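Before relying on records like the one below, remember that each one covers exactly one chain. Contacts with other chains, cofactors or solvent are not represented anywhere in the record.
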Amino acid sequence: MADSTLQLCSFQLAEALFGLDTMLVQEIIKVPEITKVYQAPEEIIGIINLRGKIVTIIDLGVKLELPSTVESRNRRIIIVESGNEPFGLMVDRINDVIQIDGGKLGPAPANVRVSQGRFISSVFRDEDQLIAILNLEELVNQAENKTD
């Protein structure tokens, strides 16, 4: 019997497959007009107004040091919340919501660069794919610390 079943929102950055627990995802939107924030870290693209809330947009590809491989019209923003503050995570492509066996989660491989490893909480591996599960708190805490 499985320890637990997790639902993941899976998405791509470059050629890599990532996942985020669906319980952390508020919504997924097309990329709207983004207002640039000057002197912000490179991964902070800017801010948007989403139904009256100011949302900081983080380019996950830049954050994880991965090159973008898709046209900008195919990119999407995953809206999440941390510490009562909304954030948008820009990704190259949204895939499916998948269910995985939580018992099959393992640690990030040792060959993952330190700069990326701290943002990956675990890895799901099966016959077909390897999905890096992101540590949302680490991602947005880093962004919050840099914008203070």
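The chain is about 15% helix and 50% strand.
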